[in-house]
Specification:
Length: 317
């Protein structure tokens, strides 16, 4: 743990205190990565549906409620509880319509998770414009008031990025934006100079081809350029509802997607799953080991990376 980090000119870091870890003999940090649980929604008042939410509500009633199942997500969380993880990372879309009542219900769900949680918003959470006090600020305890934010645990820096923006009907694209990209680059450079393992969490995948254009990250090229210049050890995303393993374009940085935590689907890459990440130091950097779990505890995929420390805070393209 590094509780005495040097002063940071980035305001997002000043509002993002570090995690206080429990004492442990091993320096290994174990993370559970899940995404897109689309928790069962409370009733939606008709006044809240006089906008894009009306289409999403229709989709939920006709189709999505029959495949995004509460029991599937509950089984997945029980497997996480059995796995004794340090932190649960949720990369967005806890809600379906982004109503204030859904945000409050999701906050109670976050509080009941089997380990401390960190969250970022997804496109469903940012479906329409509304006061932050009615929406994202209800999750401030598990995120921050400003993005990107960082939490540090035993040398592992978890960086949360917000790519969720309100969009037109039938659109689900995202954008990080110029100001957030600038803060992200400076933050990654500083964390790299400190020799920390940088785990970045974003909802929309910062790579072309993983989702259709209407669901894409509009500034994926610019975001990928930030990673090429500043570096990261691994990037986690949701949104696609696919279990994927690729790379940030032009780098060897693993880009790890995960299926929806509640989705029931016959296709193996679409079945609900969670990513278990063990991170521990070795003499030249960090070893990251992935085991991808199904809700019944079976493992569908394994991978491992040695990520060397670059104390300049930058990586070569």
């Amino acid at each position: 743990m590094t509780p005495d980090l040097p002063a940071d000119p980035i305001s997002s870091r000043q509002t993002s205190p570090v995690i206080t870890p429990t004492p442990a003999v091993s320096p290994t940090v174990t993370l559970a990565h899940i995404s897109d649980p689309h928790l069962p929604p409370p009733p939606v008042h008709w006044r809240e549906a006089l906008n894009k939410r009306a289409l999403s509500l229709l989709s939920w009633k006709k189709h999505r409620r029959y495949v995004h199942l509460e029991q599937t997500c509950s089984a997945l969380l029980k497997d996480i509880e059995r796995s004794d993880v340090d932190t649960v990372l949720i990369s967005g879309d806890l809600t379906n319509f982004g109503t204030p009542d859904e945000f409050a219900s999701a906050a109670r769900w976050l509080d009941a998770l089997p380990a401390q949680a960190l969250v970022i918003p997804g496109n469903h959470d940012c479906m329409v414009r509304q006061p932050a006090s009615a929406g994202l600020h209800q999750w401030e305890r598990w995120s921050a008031r400003q993005y990107p934010y960082v939490r540090i645990q035993n040398g592992v820096a978890i960086v949360g990025v917000n790519s969720g923006i309100p969009t037109a009907p039938f659109m689900a694209y995202g954008r990080v934006g110029h100001r957030q990209r600038e803060r992200l680059e400076a933050l990654l450079e500083e964390l790299g100079r400190e020799g920390l393992c940088r785990v970045v969490m974003i909802h929309h995948p910062p790579r072309r081809g993983l989702v259709p254009w209407r669901k894409s990250l509009l500034d994926h090229r610019e975001v990928a350029a930030v990673f090429r210049r500043a570096g990261a050890e691994i990037v986690l995303h949701g949104h696609s509802h696919d279990a994927t393993l690729t790379h940030i374009a032009g780098t060897d940085i693993p880009l790890l997607g995960v299926a929806s935590a509640s989705l029931t689907d016959e296709r193996p890459h679409r079945q609900a799953c969670w990513n278990r990440l063990n991170i521990h130091p070795y003499r030249k950097g960090w070893t990251i080991t992935l085991t991808r779990h199904r809700p019944d505890g079976s493992v569908s995929e394994r991978a491992s990376w040695n990520r060397p420390v670059n104390h300049t805070g930058r990586t070569e393209a």
